[in-house]
Design brief:
Layout (H helix, E strand, L loop, with lengths): L4 E2 L20 H14 L4 E3 L9 E5 L12 E23 L2 E19 L5 E7 H14 L10 H6 L1 H8 L9 E2 L4
Parallel strand pairs: 1-7
Antiparallel strand pairs: 2-3, 3-4, 4-5, 5-6
Length: about 180
């Protein structure tokens, strides 16, 4: 089932999400819905807060990105903790399903080590670099209540203020289902 993406301005996007455990109801159905929603909106990552759930869960699928390592970068991250971000930082233009039609350069570390559980609650500790690390950092920010616009140059953020306000008011066309803050 395709779920609506919560738009900029929704309070759930600013909350630090809570952990889940094996008793979380209907997790496999939720994951299926999240992947279907992400693909329908042409995303490469989706965090639970973006569908209105303040839980520490996000999914990624970067398999279509050329030169990404690992090649089959499709994963579920449950209760993740970034243990370390390292190597030089680099700028790259990012966008977000919750902030349609807005893109800006974000400066992030080139590598990270993350501890997380998969969809079977098996624990993993892995290191990623390049685009895989960037995707993880972006989605991880969502479960920390941070948006990519918080990480851009203050002048650029000021220039985007009207666009962001319009998104919060529902004055945007995204090409996929969205849920806007109540006016």
């Amino acid at each position: 089932m395709i779920l609506p993406i919560y738009a900029y301005g929704q309070p759930v996007l600013r909350k630090k999400a809570t952990e889940i455990d094996t008793a979380y109801p209907n997790l496999s159905q939720l994951l299926e819905n999240m992947f279907e929603t992400m693909y329908d909106s042409n995303g490469i990552g989706l965090a639970a807060p973006q569908i209105g759930l303040s839980i520490r869960l996000f999914i990624v699928d970067g398999t279509e990105i050329e030169d990404i390592e690992p090649k089959n970068f499709k994963k579920v991250f449950i209760n993740p903790i970034i243990e370390e971000e390292f190597d030089e930082k680099w700028d790259y233009e990012e966008g977000c399903l919750s902030i349609p039609n807005v893109r800006a350069d974000v400066n992030r570390h080139a590598k990270l080590t993350i501890r997380y559980q998969d969809e079977h609650f098996q624990e993993h500790v892995e290191t990623y670099g390049g685009m895989a690390a960037r995707i993880i950092q972006h989605e991880y920010d969502h479960i920390e209540g941070i948006l990519f616009t918080d990480r851009i140059h203050p002048l650029k953020r000021t220039l985007l203020k009207t666009k962001l306000n319009n998104i919060a008011l529902g004055k945007v066309s995204a090409g996929y289902r969205m849920k806007f803050a109540k006016k």
